Sequence to fold (503 residues):
Amino acid sequence: MLPVVALVGRPNVGKSTLFNRITRSRDALVAEHAGLTRDRQYGRAVHAGRRFIAIDTGGLSGDEQGIDAAMAAQSEQAIVEADVVLLLVDSRAGLSAIDRAIAGRLRTTGKPVLLVANKIDGADPVEAQAELSELGFAELFPVSAAHGRGVHALLDALVAQFPPLPQPFTGGHAEERAEGRAEGHAEGHFEARAEAPAEAPAEAPAEAQRGLKIAIVGRPNVGKSTLVNRMLGEDRVVVFDQPGTTRDSIYIDYQRDGKSYTLIDTAGVRRRKNIDLVVEKFSIVKTLQAIQDANVVVLVMDAREGIVDQDLHLLGYTLDSGRAVVLAVNKWDGLDDYQKRVVRTQIDRRLQFVNFAETHFISALHGSGVGNLYGAIDTAYRAATADLSTPRLTRILEDAVADHPPPLVRGRRIKLRYAHPGGSNPPIVVIHGNQVDELPGSYRRYLEKVYRRELQLYGTPVRIELRSGENPFAGRRNVLTPRQQRKRERMMKHVRKQKGKRK
Fold:
């Protein structure tokens, strides 16, 4: 198990900035706004050959109420999970009663705690240490998380708190180990072998360690975080009856039935004219990035409000990004029979353009229908990453053209010759032919439906790319070959000779 490090402190002391610095990422949302972080954010980090997991937490104030109480519960859970705790204080603002209360809470855990004085730029470290010594910690680490000052020394002290790496079994008695060292297998060699596996994942991309990525998206307050907690089976993210509770995109890795998944809880996306706070703009940007990063998008809609325009906008962005999609109509159990018929009618009328996606009626709060989402997610992912072959795509194209030929353009028939795969997630079918630029959009949609039906590509958009063969004589109409030039000269000579005879 990798060591776990929790970053705790009162609001706006720079925990998310230090988290991004340690993990060398921009996963945590950072802005000059107190209380921005609400959920636990996990990230992988490595320093001096030692890997560990860092947890960014929301700010603690000591008198939490409402949504702040749920945020405090997330921070408390991070402290329970941690092996080492970093207590961050603001060196510019000085020591506060909240800092004293948090330090007292951490001392009762019995876990190693490192006191970190952030925002040390422009402050005197000696003066800050004198004031913060009241907290009773043996050593103070002055840092500037924004600029990286002092972070390396902090990480050196941090990894020193980790348990030593396990040494591999070398085969028995001390005499045999000494004999092995005499043959050149020095003790340092065994240490290097123990640390080598820890270095490898640092070189590999973080994405390779994630499973099937599922983004939960929708408007504010439709139940996205409740659905995430229900799918995970625990209170992993903050849930509160208030629009805009989630502000960051939270990636959560887990396994179900032997399969690896990564759930992405995202912030709700409102209409642009209703967005006032800069923080909300950043949250929406993170949501749109999560859609592009996901393999499958679960669009959550509120059954009590029906299908609204913003749902269609989000769905359109998802399809434009080429992501597989599953539709989840939440809060279904709170409707009577008449309201359910109205919602079904809206779905049939307004979501006709995405009839290839599965629709599930669920209750994230009570769990009804949530388990069925996994089957739709796996089906959509298999379709999005299907292995297509050129011969089969070409045969389907030939049959489609034989059943319904392309239209005439200026008296000439558009010719579609062959097709081949052009990519996956979404599946791309590249079709070559003549005059393909003149192919109507209706015929392109006809081909999409044929390929989806024949290949069983349900749950994912299918893209058709048309490519036209180049004319080898284009731009060369006035260029003659040497043979053509000689023939032309002989013909011109003959014409001049005939004109001379007439005279």
